[in-house]
Amino acid sequence: MSxxxxxxxxxxxxxxGVLGCADIARRRVLxxxxxxxxxxxxAVASRDPGRARQVADTFGCAPVAGYQALLERDDxxxxxxxxxxxxxxxxxxxxxxxxxxxxxxKPLTTSSAETAELTALATASxxxxxxxxxxxxxxxxxxxxxxxxxxxxxxxxxxxxxxxxPRRPPGDIRLSAELGGGALLDIGGYPLRAAQFFLGPDLRxxxxxxxxxxxxxxDCGGGALLVxxxxxxxxxxxxxxxxxxxxxxxxxxxxxxxxxxAFTPPADHVGEIRLDRADGTEVLPTxxxxxxxxxxAAFVRAVRTGEPAAGHGTLRRQAELIExxxxxxxxxxxxxxx
Length: 338
Description:
Elements: E1 14-19, H1 23-33, E2 39-46, H2 49-59, E3 62-65, H3 67-71, E4 78-81, H4 88-97, E5 101-104, H5 112-125, E6 129-131, H6 139-149, E7 156-164, H7 183-186, H8 189-199, E8 203-212, E9 219-228, E10 233-239, E11 245-252, E12 255-260, E13 271-277, E14 280-286, H9 291-305, H10 312-328
Parallel strand pairs: 1-2, 1-4, 2-3, 4-5, 5-6, 7-10
Antiparallel strand pairs: 7-11, 8-9, 9-10, 11-12, 12-13, 13-14
């Protein structure tokens, strides 16, 4: 089944096509598309016709053999692209050229030059190009930002964030340099994007380290120290070969905010914000929210409001900071997808 447009909403639903049948598409994004107001899943493409048919039958849409064939359909307004990162530039470019709006999995590309090129193309084409960073659309983090703005912890001094996951199985695309894998691109983007979310875009990299696991061809973990224009620091940890951690902390002059299960909470997870100050600790419950549906709904709104350049500055700065971290770590000769 597919989402039915709100009868009070006069515009027809935004018709999505999907390029690829990746796990994240089948497990999270396609089910969320079916629940997103103003969106309709129209087709899914795979290079394997049988695979396309299997996924299409599961989600009630049309199967398409081949990515280009989907882009040539006139019943597709936007594409969701969950392909490996090294394939993103080619297919984002093709989709924009075909007149489609694009929501791509993170990282958008593996280089700041490609990100700059594609955001410029999206602007010239008057099409929305967005990166599927879901956690920024969870209301818990906006509440944290309001608490900080209201002086709940005084002047923010240090932002600390960690996102690490257990070892990936052999053959996982995140362990392939050719496909654009590695901890920095795949996992590091979360704490890095969170640092921008809370400290703003005026960040510079003061130091970084990346670790390559035994026999691995990509970085499997690392950390970075960033400094904002007003002197606040951000300490980031990320990894693909660790115990699971997903949290951040904002340490201010008069208090501290801590958020656990920060980046990929299930849609039914009732979370909390821990606020520690000199007069005691306050635990603020936060309601469950489906950040995947919220992300898709935000994308639909961006298309409807006709603001193709919304968020492009953040996309470009994210890509630049990733390259700055790689340079600081002394690993520019190992850039993925190159």
